[in-house]
Amino acid sequence: MKLAWERAIAATRDVHASADAPICAYLYDLKALAHHAAHLRADLPAHCDLFYAIKANSDLPLLTTLASRLDGFEASSGGEIGWIRQHFPQMPLIFSGPGKLDTELELALAHGATVHVESLHELERLATLARTTKQSASLLLRVNPPLAELATTTLVMGGKPTQFGVAIEHLPTCLERLRQEPTLVLRGFHFHLLSHQLDADNHLQLLSAYLRQTRRWCAQYDLRIEHINVGGGIGVNYRDPERQFDWPRFSRGLAELLTQESRMAGCRGLPRVRFELGRFVSAFCGYYATEVVDIKEAGNQAFAVVRGGTHHFRTPYAQGHSHPFRILPVNNWRRAYHRPSIRARAVTVVGQLCTPKDVLASDITVEQLRVGDLLLFPYAGAYAWHISHHDFLRHPHPRHIYLPAEDPI
Ligand SMILES: Cc1ncc(COP(=O)(O)O)c(C=O)c1O
Question: Which residue minimizes the CA distance to atom 7 of ligand 1?
Answer without folding.
Answer: 232
